[in-house]
TrEMBL record:
<dbReference type="InterPro" id="IPR006710">
    <property type="entry name" value="Glyco_hydro_43"/>
</dbReference>
<dbReference type="Pfam" id="PF04616">
    <property type="entry name" value="Glyco_hydro_43"/>
</dbReference>
<dbReference type="GO" id="GO:0005975">
    <property type="term" value="P:carbohydrate metabolic process"/>
</dbReference>
<protein>
    <submittedName>
        <fullName>Glycoside hydrolase family 43 protein</fullName>
    </submittedName>
</protein>
<dbReference type="GO" id="GO:0004553">
    <property type="term" value="F:hydrolase activity, hydrolyzing O-glycosyl compounds"/>
</dbReference>
<feature type="site" description="Important for catalytic activity, responsible for pKa modulation of the active site Glu and correct orientation of both the proton donor and substrate">
    <location>
        <position position="131"/>
    </location>
</feature>
<comment type="pathway">
    <text>Glycan metabolism; L-arabinan degradation.</text>
</comment>
<keyword id="KW-0378">Hydrolase</keyword>
<dbReference type="InterPro" id="IPR023296">
    <property type="entry name" value="Glyco_hydro_beta-prop_sf"/>
</dbReference>
<dbReference type="InterPro" id="IPR050727">
    <property type="entry name" value="GH43_arabinanases"/>
</dbReference>
<keyword id="KW-0326">Glycosidase</keyword>
<comment type="similarity">
    <text>Belongs to the glycosyl hydrolase 43 family.</text>
</comment>
Length: 303
């Protein structure tokens, strides 16, 4: 039996990702859990709940080995049950070239320990890339959708690349799905580091299908320098799109980096962090539903 000691307000976490295991009746919560995620990386922790309100943890699920390729910016772990094991897609800042990249780790258990599977990041070595997310296409082949970072290219991109069947490496070249400025709801991000450039941010893409087979994507950006979450839909039903953006942001109250999961009662839930300020960020769970061909928030789930 789980011993619950924490509420959502007690958990500092960014980029929340929920893995529901119905056979256990438990929700596993992963995310960026370093107290200062902008500095040295120590690893990832996870929490466990049966109701999304009362949590047990933290459980250390990943600590880097001595020869790990990164030592800073441990971000956005996403954990998937796939082919009999659990796989973590997470972003790290490389030691060799100081660029971000998404690597794949694996474990036999949802609470780890997770160990490196890929030889460093599976994103391109010359790119600064982040927030890789796993999606399986209609043929059963794995792909990763990720961001080509705005700090490198100005107008951030969401890209996709096919993965090897064992998820250990990319196969082929990435395809650009869209750029941040193409969405009608985004505005330029004014950064004190780049005051003289026009920047558009892409952050945290996550793909999911609804009951009729339509393929949607959540992704985050900014509206007047406030963090926000948008939705796009694949017009072809496939990963490569083309992608059409909902005209208005799904959530624009300084929260985002979302993902969607099924509650044990069958409803669909959205997980985001809010506000987008360290150390105030907390997990927030909302009910989400498709209405007239668009995704909409139906109401809160957590206290």
């Amino acid at each position: 039996m789980l011993r619950f000691a924490l509420k959502c307000k007690d958990i500092q976490i960014r980029d929340p990702f929920v893995l529901p295991l119905e056979e256990e009746g438990k929700y596993y919560l992963f995310g960026s859990t370093d107290k200062n995620i902008w500095g040295p990386g120590t690893g990832f922790d996870a929490y466990v709940s049966d109701d999304l309100s009362n949590w047990e943890g933290p459980h250390p699920v990943f600590r880097p080995p001595a020869d790990f390729f990164a030592d800073a910016n441990f971000w956005a772990p996403e954990v998937y049950a796939y082919a009999g094991r659990y796989y973590m897609f997470a972003t790290f800042r490389r030691k060799d070239n100081n660029r971000l990249g998404t690597a794949v780790l694996a474990s036999d258990r949802p609470l780890g320990p997770f160990e490196p599977l890929s030889e460093g990041p599976v994103t391109p070595e010359a790119w600064s890339s982040l927030d890789g997310s796993l999606i399986i296409d209609d043929a059963g082949d794995p792909w990763m959708v990720f961001c080509h970072e705005w700090q490198q290219i100005g107008d951030g991109e969401v890209c996709a690349v096919r993965l090897a069947p064992d998820l250990s490496r990319a196969e082929g070249e990435p395809a650009t799905l869209f750029r941040a400025s193409e969405a009608p709801w985004t505005t330029p991000f004014v950064s004190p580091r780049f005051p003289d450039t026009v920047n558009y941010v892409t952050d945290g893409p996550y793909l999911f299908r609804v009951d009729d087979g339509e393929l949607y994507m959540l992704w985050a950006s900014f509206i007047d320098n406030t963090y926000a979450l948008g939705v796009a839909k694949s017009e072809s039903g496939g990963i490569l799109g083309p992608w059409t953006h909902q005209p208005e942001a799904l959530y624009r109250d300084d929260g985002g980096h979302g993902m969607v999961f099924r509650l044990f009662d069958g409803r669909r839930a959205l997980a985001i962090h809010a506000p987008n300020r360290t150390p105030e960020e907390r997990p927030l769970f909302l009910e989400i539903a498709e209405r007239d061909g668009r995704m909409a928030i139906a109401g809160p789930l957590s206290d």
